[in-house]
Amino acid sequence: MKLKIKKDEILKGLQRIQGVVDKKNTMPILSNMLLIADGKGVEIIATDLEIGLRGRYAAEVEKTGAVTVSAKKMFEIVRELPEENIQIRVEDGNWVKIVSGRSQFKLVGLPKEEYPNMPDVAEEGMITIAGDTLRDMIKKTLYAAGENDARYVLNGLFMHLTPGKGGINIRMVGTDGHRLSMIDRNVEAKHKEESVIVPKKAMMELRRLLEEDDSQEGFQIGFSKNHALFKRGDLVMVSKLIDGNYPNYQQVLPAQSAKKVIVSKDQITHAVKRVSILSKEKTNAVKLQLEKNALLLSTNNPEVGEANEELEIVYGGDSLSIGFNSRYLMDVLMSMDGGNITLELNDSLSPCLIKEEGNDSYKCVVMPMRV
Prior knowledge:
Layout: E1 2-6, H1 7-17, E2 32-38, E3 41-47, E4 51-57, E5 60-63, E6 65-70, H2 71-80, E7 85-91, E8 95-100, E9 103-110, E10 127-130, H3 131-139, E11 156-164, E12 167-175, E13 179-187, E14 194-199, H4 200-210, E15 218-223, E16 227-232, E17 235-240, E18 259-264, H5 265-275, E19 285-291, E20 294-301, E21 305-312, E22 320-325, H6 326-335, E23 340-345, E24 352-356, E25 362-366
């Protein structure tokens, strides 16, 4: 294998795979990437057996071939190379030689046959969704998904596709049992009703790909029995699905709320951030006291001190005192758009429903805590 490639071009491909390659060294080959040079350019492939990412990049290929090599070391080398043009060639014994200007490196490579194959997922029935729409949906739900939760189905985002008039509704839900986030978006496409759970890591990697630029270019998404497929041009990501039944999240959403508060999103976000500075590290507890047209936020930590802040709100109901984990509250507030948000409550032990004012397509729930 022998080729010449621009630094920016290969660096883009190497950056994309850094989050995919396995860092736990369960199988040493999984810390490698697969480099394939053919008549159309170069393919860079990485997998941890759960997620696979494949991209094609422009290159002048003098001699075709393939090799696997350390993804991390290759990235670190290319990032520091001084020249724009980089030469890569494979020598006897699968040594990978990298040359740029007066810089030369040799990396130990392994034959391509030792690298696991990415699963083949049929592309029939895929739907196209705008990149910025998909990015927004992931951003607004990913924070609520579980992290190594024993209830493994919570360690991913639930996607429910429902046919409707003029297209399909895509619902994305994340929850870890303490908070829940749910967003709906309509897409002009045809698709059968389908529900899947996509792992959190896969959604994190997909979000990184979507954040590379502000392009609204569509991403194609599709599902098989065991895998999810995400595709844009020559960039393909495949992820295993989480097998299991997602909990009935609808039960957590309050059907009716006796108390409704309208408050400036920026004001309450900054107030919670300030007051939580003195909250206990283990609980992050912040107390919210509702009064007529006033919201009192407070924390009390005997070891450090106490904090209080008052906000003007739109509220005409009875007094109510309720506590929250400030970190959970901040995650919700930071995901919200618009000037005002609404808090809908019943009592100090019931979930709090948070929405952007006038927008019912995005709903968040935070469970209260005793303070």
